[in-house]
Batch of 2 targets.
Target 1
Amino acid sequence: METISIEGTPKTPTITFDINKGFLEIKGRSIPENSIEFYKPLVDWLEKYASKPQTSTNVNIQLEYFNTSSSKCILDVFKKLEAINKSGSQVVINWFYEEDDEDMLEAGEDYQAIINVPFKMVQVTE
Amino acid sequence: MLNIYDFYDKMERNNIMLSFKGDVTSELLTSILQIMESKLDTMQEDPKIKKKVYNVLVECLQNLYHHMDEITPDLNEKIRAAIFLIGKIDNQYTIITGNYIKKENVSGLQKRLEDINQLSKDQLKEFYKEILNNGEMSMKGGGGLGMVDIARKTGDKLNFNFLPVDDQYSFFSLNIKIS
Protein backbone atom coordinates (compact mmCIF):
# COMPACT_ATOMS: atom_id res chain seq x y z
CA MET A 1 0.00 0.00 0.00
CA GLU A 2 1.06 3.60 0.06
CA THR A 3 1.58 6.88 1.82
CA ILE A 4 -0.44 9.80 0.67
CA SER A 5 0.63 13.32 1.42
CA ILE A 6 -0.36 16.89 0.75
CA GLU A 7 2.23 19.55 1.35
CA GLY A 8 1.28 22.50 3.52
CA THR A 9 0.85 26.10 2.40
CA PRO A 10 0.38 29.31 4.46
CA LYS A 11 -3.35 28.56 4.50
CA THR A 12 -3.50 24.76 4.45
CA PRO A 13 -1.95 22.02 6.60
CA THR A 14 0.46 19.24 5.71
CA ILE A 15 -1.41 15.97 5.54
CA THR A 16 0.32 12.61 5.79
CA PHE A 17 -1.59 9.39 5.59
CA ASP A 18 0.45 6.21 5.92
CA ILE A 19 -2.03 3.51 5.10
CA ASN A 20 0.32 0.62 6.02
CA LYS A 21 0.85 1.96 9.49
CA GLY A 22 -2.67 3.25 9.95
CA PHE A 23 -1.28 6.68 10.71
CA LEU A 24 -2.82 10.00 9.75
CA GLU A 25 -1.37 13.38 10.58
CA ILE A 26 -2.77 16.86 9.95
CA LYS A 27 -0.28 19.52 10.88
CA GLY A 28 0.08 23.27 10.41
CA ARG A 29 -2.66 25.78 9.80
CA SER A 30 -6.00 25.29 8.19
CA ILE A 31 -7.50 28.60 7.15
CA PRO A 32 -8.50 28.24 3.48
CA GLU A 33 -11.52 30.15 2.19
CA ASN A 34 -12.82 26.99 0.59
CA SER A 35 -12.24 24.13 2.99
CA ILE A 36 -14.56 21.62 1.35
CA GLU A 37 -12.41 21.59 -1.76
CA PHE A 38 -9.25 21.13 0.32
CA TYR A 39 -10.50 18.32 2.54
CA LYS A 40 -12.31 16.34 -0.13
CA PRO A 41 -9.31 14.15 -1.10
CA LEU A 42 -8.69 13.24 2.54
CA VAL A 43 -12.33 12.32 3.10
CA ASP A 44 -12.16 10.16 -0.06
CA TRP A 45 -8.97 8.38 1.11
CA LEU A 46 -10.57 7.66 4.48
CA GLU A 47 -13.58 6.27 2.70
CA LYS A 48 -11.31 3.85 0.83
CA TYR A 49 -9.25 3.06 3.93
CA ALA A 50 -12.44 2.25 5.84
CA SER A 51 -13.05 -0.78 3.65
CA LYS A 52 -9.73 -2.36 4.75
CA PRO A 53 -8.33 -0.59 7.81
CA GLN A 54 -5.37 -1.63 9.98
CA THR A 55 -6.10 -3.11 13.42
CA SER A 56 -5.31 0.27 14.93
CA THR A 57 -5.44 3.76 13.48
CA ASN A 58 -3.53 6.62 15.05
CA VAL A 59 -4.41 10.17 14.22
CA ASN A 60 -2.39 13.26 15.10
CA ILE A 61 -4.06 16.63 14.78
CA GLN A 62 -1.52 19.36 15.37
CA LEU A 63 -3.01 22.62 14.20
CA GLU A 64 -1.71 26.04 14.98
CA TYR A 65 -4.78 27.79 13.60
CA PHE A 66 -7.99 26.67 11.99
CA ASN A 67 -10.92 28.69 10.73
CA THR A 68 -14.62 27.94 11.14
CA SER A 69 -14.81 26.89 7.51
CA SER A 70 -12.30 24.11 8.28
CA SER A 71 -14.00 23.13 11.51
CA LYS A 72 -16.89 21.42 9.71
CA CYS A 73 -14.50 19.58 7.40
CA ILE A 74 -12.44 18.39 10.35
CA LEU A 75 -15.67 17.11 11.88
CA ASP A 76 -16.36 15.22 8.64
CA VAL A 77 -12.92 13.64 8.89
CA PHE A 78 -13.63 12.66 12.50
CA LYS A 79 -17.00 11.20 11.51
CA LYS A 80 -15.22 8.96 9.02
CA LEU A 81 -12.80 7.94 11.79
CA GLU A 82 -15.75 7.23 14.07
CA ALA A 83 -17.13 4.82 11.48
CA ILE A 84 -13.69 3.18 11.11
CA ASN A 85 -13.48 2.80 14.89
CA LYS A 86 -16.92 1.22 14.97
CA SER A 87 -16.03 -1.28 12.27
CA GLY A 88 -13.11 -2.75 14.22
CA SER A 89 -9.95 -0.66 13.82
CA GLN A 90 -8.99 0.92 17.14
CA VAL A 91 -8.84 4.62 16.49
CA VAL A 92 -7.14 7.16 18.75
CA ILE A 93 -7.18 10.88 17.99
CA ASN A 94 -4.27 12.80 19.51
CA TRP A 95 -5.23 16.46 19.69
CA PHE A 96 -2.15 18.64 20.12
CA TYR A 97 -2.36 22.12 21.60
CA GLU A 98 0.29 24.55 22.64
CA GLU A 99 0.70 25.40 26.28
CA ASP A 100 -1.60 28.35 27.12
CA ASP A 101 -3.65 27.92 23.95
CA GLU A 102 -6.95 27.44 25.76
CA ASP A 103 -8.96 28.07 22.61
CA MET A 104 -7.27 25.14 20.85
CA LEU A 105 -7.75 22.87 23.86
CA GLU A 106 -11.40 23.87 24.04
CA ALA A 107 -11.82 23.20 20.31
CA GLY A 108 -10.48 19.69 20.88
CA GLU A 109 -12.90 19.18 23.74
CA ASP A 110 -15.78 20.32 21.52
CA TYR A 111 -14.93 17.54 19.06
CA GLN A 112 -14.43 15.06 21.86
CA ALA A 113 -17.98 15.78 23.03
CA ILE A 114 -19.42 15.15 19.57
CA ILE A 115 -17.33 12.24 18.29
CA ASN A 116 -17.40 8.78 19.81
CA VAL A 117 -13.68 8.00 19.47
CA PRO A 118 -11.01 8.12 22.22
CA PHE A 119 -9.27 11.50 22.26
CA LYS A 120 -5.95 12.25 23.87
CA MET A 121 -5.22 15.90 24.61
CA VAL A 122 -1.50 16.41 24.17
CA GLN A 123 0.09 19.61 25.44
CA VAL A 124 3.19 20.80 23.62
CA THR A 125 5.57 23.35 25.04
CA GLU A 126 6.58 26.12 22.67
CA MET B 1 -9.13 66.76 -3.08
CA LEU B 2 -8.55 64.79 0.07
CA ASN B 3 -6.07 66.21 2.52
CA ILE B 4 -3.70 63.29 2.92
CA TYR B 5 -2.11 64.63 6.08
CA ASP B 6 -5.49 64.93 7.70
CA PHE B 7 -6.13 61.34 6.74
CA TYR B 8 -2.73 60.23 8.05
CA ASP B 9 -3.24 62.13 11.28
CA LYS B 10 -6.62 60.51 11.88
CA MET B 11 -5.12 57.08 11.37
CA GLU B 12 -2.18 57.92 13.58
CA ARG B 13 -4.37 59.20 16.39
CA ASN B 14 -6.47 56.07 16.23
CA ASN B 15 -3.38 53.87 16.16
CA ILE B 16 -4.35 52.17 12.92
CA MET B 17 -1.81 49.50 12.08
CA LEU B 18 -3.29 48.50 8.78
CA SER B 19 -6.20 49.53 6.62
CA PHE B 20 -7.63 48.51 3.28
CA LYS B 21 -10.49 49.49 1.01
CA GLY B 22 -11.36 47.58 -2.12
CA ASP B 23 -12.23 44.17 -3.44
CA VAL B 24 -11.35 41.41 -0.97
CA THR B 25 -9.73 38.47 -2.78
CA SER B 26 -8.18 35.26 -1.50
CA GLU B 27 -4.69 36.51 -2.48
CA LEU B 28 -5.25 39.77 -0.62
CA LEU B 29 -6.20 37.88 2.53
CA THR B 30 -3.08 35.73 2.28
CA SER B 31 -0.93 38.88 2.12
CA ILE B 32 -2.79 40.75 4.86
CA LEU B 33 -2.54 37.80 7.21
CA GLN B 34 1.18 37.48 6.54
CA ILE B 35 1.71 41.20 7.16
CA MET B 36 -0.26 41.12 10.39
CA GLU B 37 1.53 38.03 11.59
CA SER B 38 4.94 39.56 11.10
CA LYS B 39 3.78 42.80 12.73
CA LEU B 40 2.59 40.85 15.77
CA ASP B 41 5.94 39.04 15.85
CA THR B 42 7.88 42.29 15.58
CA MET B 43 5.85 43.75 18.43
CA GLN B 44 6.72 40.63 20.42
CA GLU B 45 3.11 40.22 21.29
CA ASP B 46 2.17 37.66 23.93
CA PRO B 47 1.61 34.37 22.01
CA LYS B 48 -1.82 34.00 23.57
CA ILE B 49 -2.98 37.43 22.38
CA LYS B 50 -1.28 36.94 19.03
CA LYS B 51 -3.23 33.74 18.41
CA LYS B 52 -6.51 35.33 19.42
CA VAL B 53 -5.97 38.36 17.19
CA TYR B 54 -4.95 36.18 14.27
CA ASN B 55 -7.89 33.81 14.67
CA VAL B 56 -10.45 36.57 14.98
CA LEU B 57 -8.90 38.44 12.07
CA VAL B 58 -9.18 35.37 9.86
CA GLU B 59 -12.89 35.07 10.66
CA CYS B 60 -13.59 38.79 10.19
CA LEU B 61 -11.78 38.99 6.86
CA GLN B 62 -13.18 35.74 5.52
CA ASN B 63 -16.65 37.00 6.40
CA LEU B 64 -16.00 39.92 4.10
CA TYR B 65 -14.60 37.63 1.42
CA HIS B 66 -17.60 35.31 1.45
CA HIS B 67 -20.26 37.97 1.66
CA MET B 68 -18.89 40.01 -1.19
CA ASP B 69 -20.18 37.19 -3.42
CA GLU B 70 -23.69 38.17 -2.59
CA ILE B 71 -23.23 41.51 -4.23
CA THR B 72 -23.75 41.33 -7.96
CA PRO B 73 -20.73 42.79 -9.72
CA ASP B 74 -22.84 44.52 -12.37
CA LEU B 75 -23.73 48.20 -12.45
CA ASN B 76 -22.13 49.57 -9.36
CA GLU B 77 -18.50 48.70 -8.87
CA LYS B 78 -18.15 50.55 -5.59
CA ILE B 79 -20.70 48.21 -4.05
CA ARG B 80 -18.19 45.35 -4.31
CA ALA B 81 -15.66 47.15 -2.20
CA ALA B 82 -15.26 46.56 1.49
CA ILE B 83 -13.17 48.27 4.12
CA PHE B 84 -11.28 47.08 7.14
CA LEU B 85 -9.08 48.66 9.76
CA ILE B 86 -6.88 47.03 12.34
CA GLY B 87 -5.69 49.10 15.26
CA LYS B 88 -4.20 48.84 18.68
CA ILE B 89 -4.80 51.21 21.54
CA ASP B 90 -3.07 50.42 24.80
CA ASN B 91 -3.42 46.68 25.09
CA GLN B 92 -6.56 46.35 23.07
CA TYR B 93 -6.74 45.38 19.43
CA THR B 94 -9.61 46.61 17.33
CA ILE B 95 -10.77 45.10 14.05
CA ILE B 96 -13.38 47.10 12.18
CA THR B 97 -14.94 45.84 8.99
CA GLY B 98 -17.51 47.45 6.71
CA ASN B 99 -19.32 46.13 3.67
CA TYR B 100 -22.47 46.66 1.67
CA ILE B 101 -25.36 44.35 2.31
CA LYS B 102 -28.62 44.00 0.40
CA LYS B 103 -31.48 45.54 2.35
CA GLU B 104 -33.49 42.31 2.22
CA ASN B 105 -30.69 40.53 4.14
CA VAL B 106 -30.39 43.08 6.93
CA SER B 107 -33.11 41.81 9.25
CA GLY B 108 -31.91 38.20 9.05
CA LEU B 109 -28.32 39.08 9.90
CA GLN B 110 -29.37 41.55 12.57
CA LYS B 111 -31.54 38.91 14.24
CA ARG B 112 -28.68 36.37 14.17
CA LEU B 113 -26.20 38.78 15.71
CA GLU B 114 -28.68 39.88 18.37
CA ASP B 115 -29.37 36.23 19.20
CA ILE B 116 -25.64 35.55 19.58
CA ASN B 117 -25.34 38.58 21.86
CA GLN B 118 -27.98 37.13 24.19
CA LEU B 119 -25.88 34.05 24.90
CA SER B 120 -23.58 33.43 27.87
CA LYS B 121 -20.14 31.89 27.46
CA ASP B 122 -21.46 28.37 28.08
CA GLN B 123 -24.45 28.90 25.82
CA LEU B 124 -22.13 30.07 23.05
CA LYS B 125 -20.12 26.88 23.42
CA GLU B 126 -23.27 24.78 23.16
CA PHE B 127 -24.57 26.82 20.21
CA TYR B 128 -21.24 26.42 18.43
CA LYS B 129 -21.31 22.66 18.87
CA GLU B 130 -24.93 22.52 17.72
CA ILE B 131 -24.21 24.38 14.47
CA LEU B 132 -21.01 22.39 13.97
CA ASN B 133 -22.78 19.08 14.36
CA ASN B 134 -26.17 19.75 12.84
CA GLY B 135 -25.93 22.86 10.75
CA GLU B 136 -25.88 22.85 7.01
CA MET B 137 -22.42 23.47 5.65
CA SER B 138 -22.62 26.08 2.98
CA MET B 139 -20.22 26.00 0.08
CA LYS B 140 -18.96 29.32 1.27
CA GLY B 141 -17.98 29.05 4.84
CA GLY B 142 -18.75 27.60 8.18
CA GLY B 143 -22.47 28.01 7.82
CA GLY B 144 -22.83 30.71 10.43
CA LEU B 145 -20.09 29.56 12.77
CA GLY B 146 -17.89 32.59 12.15
CA MET B 147 -19.78 35.12 14.25
CA VAL B 148 -20.31 32.61 17.08
CA ASP B 149 -16.59 31.88 17.04
CA ILE B 150 -15.72 35.59 17.16
CA ALA B 151 -18.05 36.08 20.13
CA ARG B 152 -16.55 33.06 21.88
CA LYS B 153 -12.94 33.99 21.31
CA THR B 154 -13.28 37.67 22.24
CA GLY B 155 -15.61 37.01 25.17
CA ASP B 156 -17.39 40.20 24.17
CA LYS B 157 -20.69 41.21 22.58
CA LEU B 158 -20.67 41.74 18.82
CA ASN B 159 -20.79 45.45 18.19
CA PHE B 160 -22.44 46.13 14.84
CA ASN B 161 -24.38 48.70 12.87
CA PHE B 162 -26.45 48.89 9.70
CA LEU B 163 -26.44 52.20 7.89
CA PRO B 164 -28.99 52.64 5.07
CA VAL B 165 -27.19 53.81 1.92
CA ASP B 166 -29.84 53.80 -0.79
CA ASP B 167 -33.05 51.94 -1.58
CA GLN B 168 -31.16 48.70 -2.31
CA TYR B 169 -28.22 48.59 0.06
CA SER B 170 -27.18 49.20 3.63
CA PHE B 171 -23.65 49.41 4.96
CA PHE B 172 -22.89 46.81 7.59
CA SER B 173 -20.12 47.50 10.07
CA LEU B 174 -18.66 45.28 12.74
CA ASN B 175 -16.37 46.52 15.50
CA ILE B 176 -14.46 43.81 17.33
CA LYS B 177 -12.20 44.31 20.31
CA ILE B 178 -9.63 41.83 21.54
CA SER B 179 -7.74 42.23 24.78
Target 2
Amino acid sequence: MKYEDKVEADKEVCNFADELGELDETLKDFRLSVQAWSEAAYNRPRSSEIVVARNQIWRPAVGWALGCVLIAGGVSAEIYSHHREQMKVVAARAVEQQRLAAIESSLRARQEDEDLLAKVDSDVSREVPSAMEPLAQMMAADETQ
Amino acid sequence: MAAGTALDMTTMATAEEIAAEEFSAVVTNHRPRIFRFLLSSTRDVDMAETLTQECFLKAHRNWASFRGESSAMTWLMRIAINLQKDHWRSRRIQFWRQTQSHALDLSEVSQWLPSGERSAEQRMLAQERVGQVGKVIERLSERQRTIFLLRYVDEMELSEIARATGLNEGTVKAHLSRALARVRAELGAKR
Protein backbone atom coordinates (compact mmCIF):
# COMPACT_ATOMS: atom_id res chain seq x y z
CA MET A 1 0.00 0.00 0.00
CA LYS A 2 1.34 3.39 -1.00
CA TYR A 3 1.92 5.92 1.73
CA GLU A 4 -0.64 8.32 0.23
CA ASP A 5 -3.20 5.52 0.10
CA LYS A 6 -2.59 4.78 3.77
CA VAL A 7 -3.21 8.41 4.67
CA GLU A 8 -6.43 8.32 2.67
CA ALA A 9 -7.50 5.12 4.43
CA ASP A 10 -6.84 6.69 7.83
CA LYS A 11 -8.84 9.76 6.86
CA GLU A 12 -11.80 7.44 6.53
CA VAL A 13 -11.20 6.25 10.08
CA CYS A 14 -11.04 9.69 11.64
CA ASN A 15 -13.54 12.44 11.91
CA PHE A 16 -10.75 15.01 11.75
CA ALA A 17 -9.48 14.01 8.33
CA ASP A 18 -8.31 17.49 7.42
CA GLU A 19 -5.90 17.59 10.37
CA LEU A 20 -4.48 14.12 9.80
CA GLY A 21 -2.10 15.46 7.18
CA GLU A 22 -0.24 17.53 9.79
CA LEU A 23 -0.24 14.68 12.28
CA ASP A 24 0.95 12.25 9.68
CA GLU A 25 4.41 13.76 9.47
CA THR A 26 4.85 13.28 13.21
CA LEU A 27 3.54 9.71 13.05
CA LYS A 28 5.97 9.01 10.24
CA ASP A 29 8.83 10.36 12.38
CA PHE A 30 7.62 8.23 15.27
CA ARG A 31 7.66 5.15 13.05
CA LEU A 32 11.17 5.93 11.80
CA SER A 33 12.37 6.39 15.37
CA VAL A 34 10.89 3.08 16.55
CA GLN A 35 12.29 1.31 13.51
CA ALA A 36 15.76 2.70 14.13
CA TRP A 37 15.58 1.79 17.82
CA SER A 38 14.31 -1.71 17.03
CA GLU A 39 16.99 -2.27 14.41
CA ALA A 40 19.72 -1.19 16.80
CA ALA A 41 18.33 -3.38 19.57
CA TYR A 42 17.89 -6.35 17.23
CA ASN A 43 21.44 -6.13 15.94
CA ARG A 44 23.07 -5.24 19.23
CA PRO A 45 25.73 -7.57 20.52
CA ARG A 46 23.96 -10.10 22.74
CA SER A 47 24.64 -10.06 26.44
CA SER A 48 25.55 -13.76 26.47
CA GLU A 49 29.12 -12.96 27.53
CA ILE A 50 27.87 -11.04 30.53
CA VAL A 51 25.53 -13.89 31.36
CA VAL A 52 28.38 -16.35 31.06
CA ALA A 53 30.59 -14.15 33.19
CA ARG A 54 27.85 -13.88 35.80
CA ASN A 55 27.32 -17.60 35.66
CA GLN A 56 31.03 -18.14 36.06
CA ILE A 57 30.93 -16.14 39.26
CA TRP A 58 27.73 -17.56 40.65
CA ARG A 59 27.95 -21.16 39.59
CA PRO A 60 31.04 -22.10 41.65
CA ALA A 61 29.63 -20.22 44.65
CA VAL A 62 26.30 -21.99 44.31
CA GLY A 63 28.14 -25.26 43.76
CA TRP A 64 30.23 -24.76 46.88
CA ALA A 65 27.21 -23.77 48.94
CA LEU A 66 25.27 -26.77 47.69
CA GLY A 67 28.26 -29.03 48.32
CA CYS A 68 28.63 -27.69 51.88
CA VAL A 69 24.95 -28.20 52.54
CA LEU A 70 25.16 -31.76 51.21
CA ILE A 71 28.25 -32.55 53.26
CA ALA A 72 26.75 -31.01 56.40
CA GLY A 73 23.56 -32.94 55.77
CA GLY A 74 25.46 -36.18 55.21
CA VAL A 75 27.56 -35.73 58.35
CA SER A 76 24.50 -34.83 60.41
CA ALA A 77 22.68 -37.88 59.11
CA GLU A 78 25.69 -40.06 59.91
CA ILE A 79 25.99 -38.63 63.43
CA TYR A 80 22.29 -39.06 64.01
CA SER A 81 22.39 -42.62 62.74
CA HIS A 82 25.45 -43.41 64.91
CA HIS A 83 23.74 -41.85 67.91
CA ARG A 84 20.65 -43.95 67.33
CA GLU A 85 22.76 -47.10 67.07
CA GLN A 86 24.46 -46.22 70.36
CA MET A 87 21.13 -45.67 72.03
CA LYS A 88 19.91 -49.03 70.75
CA VAL A 89 23.01 -50.82 72.15
CA VAL A 90 22.61 -49.09 75.52
CA ALA A 91 18.94 -49.99 75.64
CA ALA A 92 19.71 -53.62 74.71
CA ARG A 93 22.38 -53.78 77.42
CA ALA A 94 19.98 -52.41 80.02
CA VAL A 95 17.34 -54.96 79.03
CA GLU A 96 19.92 -57.77 79.24
CA GLN A 97 21.09 -56.61 82.66
CA GLN A 98 17.52 -56.48 83.90
CA ARG A 99 16.93 -59.99 82.59
CA LEU A 100 20.07 -61.31 84.31
CA ALA A 101 19.14 -59.56 87.53
CA ALA A 102 15.67 -61.10 87.40
CA ILE A 103 17.14 -64.59 86.83
CA GLU A 104 19.62 -64.11 89.66
CA SER A 105 16.95 -62.93 92.08
CA SER A 106 14.69 -65.85 91.16
CA LEU A 107 17.59 -68.30 91.70
CA ARG A 108 18.36 -66.70 95.03
CA ALA A 109 14.72 -66.92 96.08
CA ARG A 110 14.61 -70.59 95.07
CA GLN A 111 17.81 -71.30 97.04
CA GLU A 112 16.36 -69.61 100.09
CA ASP A 113 13.21 -71.73 99.79
CA GLU A 114 15.27 -74.90 99.52
CA ASP A 115 17.38 -73.91 102.50
CA LEU A 116 14.27 -73.23 104.52
CA LEU A 117 12.75 -76.58 103.59
CA ALA A 118 15.99 -78.35 104.48
CA LYS A 119 16.04 -76.58 107.81
CA VAL A 120 12.44 -77.56 108.44
CA ASP A 121 13.31 -81.14 107.55
CA SER A 122 16.32 -81.26 109.84
CA ASP A 123 15.03 -79.22 112.79
CA VAL A 124 11.29 -79.56 113.03
CA SER A 125 10.52 -82.95 111.49
CA ARG A 126 12.84 -84.92 113.73
CA GLU A 127 11.35 -83.59 116.98
CA VAL A 128 7.91 -84.91 116.07
CA PRO A 129 7.63 -88.66 116.91
CA SER A 130 6.64 -91.03 114.29
CA ALA A 131 2.94 -91.82 114.29
CA MET A 132 3.58 -95.52 114.74
CA GLU A 133 6.29 -95.17 117.39
CA PRO A 134 4.07 -95.82 120.55
CA LEU A 135 2.71 -98.97 118.96
CA ALA A 136 6.20 -100.06 118.07
CA GLN A 137 7.35 -99.48 121.63
CA MET A 138 4.44 -101.57 122.99
CA MET A 139 5.27 -104.31 120.55
CA ALA A 140 8.88 -104.25 121.69
CA ALA A 141 7.84 -104.39 125.40
CA ASP A 142 5.62 -107.45 124.77
CA GLU A 143 8.42 -109.29 123.04
CA THR A 144 10.78 -108.73 126.00
CA GLN A 145 8.22 -110.03 128.45
CA MET B 1 4.03 -53.85 1.65
CA ALA B 2 7.51 -53.23 3.07
CA ALA B 3 8.40 -51.19 0.02
CA GLY B 4 5.24 -49.14 0.54
CA THR B 5 6.14 -48.46 4.18
CA ALA B 6 9.64 -47.38 3.24
CA LEU B 7 8.18 -45.07 0.60
CA ASP B 8 5.76 -43.59 3.13
CA MET B 9 8.59 -42.96 5.57
CA THR B 10 10.68 -41.30 2.86
CA THR B 11 7.70 -39.11 1.89
CA MET B 12 7.12 -38.15 5.53
CA ALA B 13 10.78 -37.32 6.01
CA THR B 14 10.73 -35.16 2.89
CA ALA B 15 7.55 -33.38 4.02
CA GLU B 16 9.15 -32.69 7.41
CA GLU B 17 12.26 -31.31 5.74
CA ILE B 18 10.15 -29.04 3.52
CA ALA B 19 8.15 -27.83 6.55
CA ALA B 20 11.37 -27.13 8.45
CA GLU B 21 12.77 -25.15 5.52
CA GLU B 22 9.53 -23.19 5.18
CA PHE B 23 9.50 -22.38 8.86
CA SER B 24 13.13 -21.35 8.77
CA ALA B 25 12.30 -18.90 5.97
CA VAL B 26 9.36 -17.54 7.97
CA VAL B 27 11.63 -16.93 10.96
CA THR B 28 14.22 -15.17 8.84
CA ASN B 29 11.62 -12.95 7.15
CA HIS B 30 9.39 -12.02 10.06
CA ARG B 31 11.50 -12.14 13.20
CA PRO B 32 12.70 -8.50 13.04
CA ARG B 33 9.13 -7.25 12.59
CA ILE B 34 7.73 -9.32 15.44
CA PHE B 35 10.60 -8.12 17.61
CA ARG B 36 9.87 -4.51 16.65
CA PHE B 37 6.21 -4.82 17.61
CA LEU B 38 7.05 -6.46 20.94
CA LEU B 39 9.76 -3.92 21.64
CA SER B 40 7.46 -0.95 20.98
CA SER B 41 4.74 -2.61 23.12
CA THR B 42 6.90 -3.56 26.06
CA ARG B 43 9.66 -0.96 25.67
CA ASP B 44 12.03 -3.52 27.14
CA VAL B 45 14.67 -5.06 24.91
CA ASP B 46 15.22 -8.19 27.03
CA MET B 47 11.53 -8.80 27.44
CA ALA B 48 10.93 -8.26 23.71
CA GLU B 49 13.64 -10.80 22.91
CA THR B 50 12.18 -13.34 25.30
CA LEU B 51 8.68 -12.90 23.92
CA THR B 52 9.94 -13.08 20.34
CA GLN B 53 11.59 -16.39 21.12
CA GLU B 54 8.42 -17.65 22.78
CA CYS B 55 6.39 -16.51 19.79
CA PHE B 56 8.49 -18.48 17.32
CA LEU B 57 8.63 -21.48 19.61
CA LYS B 58 4.85 -21.50 19.79
CA ALA B 59 4.63 -20.98 16.04
CA HIS B 60 7.00 -23.89 15.44
CA ARG B 61 4.91 -26.18 17.62
CA ASN B 62 1.76 -25.22 15.75
CA TRP B 63 3.27 -24.86 12.30
CA ALA B 64 1.51 -28.00 11.07
CA SER B 65 -1.86 -26.49 12.01
CA PHE B 66 -1.20 -23.26 10.11
CA ARG B 67 -3.50 -23.51 7.11
CA GLY B 68 -2.54 -20.30 5.39
CA GLU B 69 -5.97 -18.74 5.88
CA SER B 70 -4.17 -15.53 6.73
CA SER B 71 -0.60 -14.53 5.92
CA ALA B 72 2.14 -16.01 8.07
CA MET B 73 2.88 -12.51 9.34
CA THR B 74 -0.70 -11.97 10.54
CA TRP B 75 -0.68 -15.41 12.17
CA LEU B 76 2.63 -14.69 13.92
CA MET B 77 1.44 -11.24 14.97
CA ARG B 78 -1.63 -12.79 16.53
CA ILE B 79 0.57 -15.14 18.55
CA ALA B 80 2.78 -12.19 19.55
CA ILE B 81 -0.21 -10.08 20.63
CA ASN B 82 -1.59 -12.94 22.73
CA LEU B 83 1.79 -13.61 24.27
CA GLN B 84 2.21 -9.97 25.13
CA LYS B 85 -1.28 -9.85 26.66
CA ASP B 86 -0.76 -13.06 28.61
CA HIS B 87 2.58 -11.88 29.77
CA TRP B 88 1.32 -8.60 31.10
CA ARG B 89 -1.59 -10.28 32.79
CA SER B 90 0.22 -13.21 34.27
CA ARG B 91 1.82 -13.25 37.67
CA ARG B 92 5.19 -12.82 36.13
CA ILE B 93 4.17 -9.33 35.23
CA GLN B 94 4.40 -8.37 38.86
CA PHE B 95 8.09 -9.07 38.59
CA TRP B 96 8.40 -7.15 35.35
CA ARG B 97 6.50 -4.22 36.81
CA GLN B 98 8.93 -4.13 39.67
CA THR B 99 11.85 -4.15 37.28
CA GLN B 100 10.29 -1.75 34.85
CA SER B 101 13.36 0.39 35.25
CA HIS B 102 14.67 -1.74 32.36
CA ALA B 103 11.83 -0.46 30.20
CA LEU B 104 12.57 2.59 28.14
CA ASP B 105 10.24 5.54 28.39
CA LEU B 106 8.58 5.58 24.98
CA SER B 107 9.14 9.30 24.74
CA GLU B 108 12.88 8.57 24.74
CA VAL B 109 12.47 6.82 21.43
CA SER B 110 12.76 10.26 19.82
CA GLN B 111 16.51 10.11 20.28
CA TRP B 112 16.54 7.45 17.55
CA LEU B 113 14.94 9.74 14.99
CA PRO B 114 17.13 9.70 11.87
CA SER B 115 18.45 13.16 11.10
CA GLY B 116 17.44 13.04 7.42
CA GLU B 117 17.76 16.29 5.55
CA ARG B 118 16.58 18.57 8.32
CA SER B 119 18.15 21.51 9.97
CA ALA B 120 19.15 21.18 13.62
CA GLU B 121 16.11 23.20 14.65
CA GLN B 122 13.70 21.14 12.57
CA ARG B 123 15.19 17.97 13.94
CA MET B 124 14.80 19.21 17.50
CA LEU B 125 11.17 20.11 16.91
CA ALA B 126 10.49 16.77 15.25
CA GLN B 127 12.12 14.95 18.19
CA GLU B 128 9.98 16.87 20.62
CA ARG B 129 6.80 15.90 18.79
CA VAL B 130 7.89 12.24 18.53
CA GLY B 131 8.54 12.27 22.28
CA GLN B 132 5.06 13.64 22.89
CA VAL B 133 3.54 10.89 20.72
CA GLY B 134 5.48 8.34 22.77
CA LYS B 135 4.11 9.76 26.01
CA VAL B 136 0.53 9.66 24.73
CA ILE B 137 0.92 6.08 23.52
CA GLU B 138 2.09 4.97 26.95
CA ARG B 139 -1.13 6.27 28.43
CA LEU B 140 -3.41 4.56 25.88
CA SER B 141 -5.28 1.41 26.83
CA GLU B 142 -3.51 -1.83 25.97
CA ARG B 143 -5.84 -2.50 23.05
CA GLN B 144 -5.63 1.01 21.64
CA ARG B 145 -1.86 1.00 21.94
CA THR B 146 -1.58 -2.36 20.19
CA ILE B 147 -3.79 -1.22 17.32
CA PHE B 148 -1.98 2.11 17.07
CA LEU B 149 1.43 0.45 16.94
CA LEU B 150 0.30 -2.15 14.41
CA ARG B 151 -1.04 0.64 12.22
CA TYR B 152 1.61 3.32 12.54
CA VAL B 153 4.76 1.38 13.31
CA ASP B 154 4.14 -1.89 11.48
CA GLU B 155 1.98 -0.27 8.80
CA MET B 156 -0.51 -3.11 8.76
CA GLU B 157 -3.78 -2.89 6.87
CA LEU B 158 -6.90 -2.44 8.98
CA SER B 159 -8.16 -5.85 7.83
CA GLU B 160 -4.85 -7.43 8.85
CA ILE B 161 -5.02 -5.75 12.24
CA ALA B 162 -8.56 -7.06 12.64
CA ARG B 163 -7.40 -10.60 11.89
CA ALA B 164 -4.33 -10.33 14.13
CA THR B 165 -6.25 -8.95 17.09
CA GLY B 166 -9.36 -11.05 16.58
CA LEU B 167 -11.55 -7.92 16.49
CA ASN B 168 -13.82 -6.85 13.69
CA GLU B 169 -12.70 -4.07 11.41
CA GLY B 170 -15.23 -1.60 12.77
CA THR B 171 -13.89 -2.02 16.30
CA VAL B 172 -10.35 -1.59 15.04
CA LYS B 173 -11.34 1.63 13.29
CA ALA B 174 -13.04 2.93 16.42
CA HIS B 175 -10.00 2.20 18.61
CA LEU B 176 -7.65 3.73 16.08
CA SER B 177 -9.80 6.82 15.79
CA ARG B 178 -9.83 7.29 19.57
CA ALA B 179 -6.09 6.77 19.80
CA LEU B 180 -5.46 9.27 17.02
CA ALA B 181 -7.80 11.76 18.64
CA ARG B 182 -5.83 11.54 21.87
CA VAL B 183 -2.53 11.98 20.07
CA ARG B 184 -3.92 14.93 18.15
CA ALA B 185 -5.36 16.52 21.28
CA GLU B 186 -2.10 16.10 23.15
CA LEU B 187 0.03 17.49 20.36
CA GLY B 188 -2.41 20.34 19.78
CA ALA B 189 -2.41 21.27 23.46
CA LYS B 190 1.36 21.29 23.68
CA ARG B 191 1.78 23.43 20.58
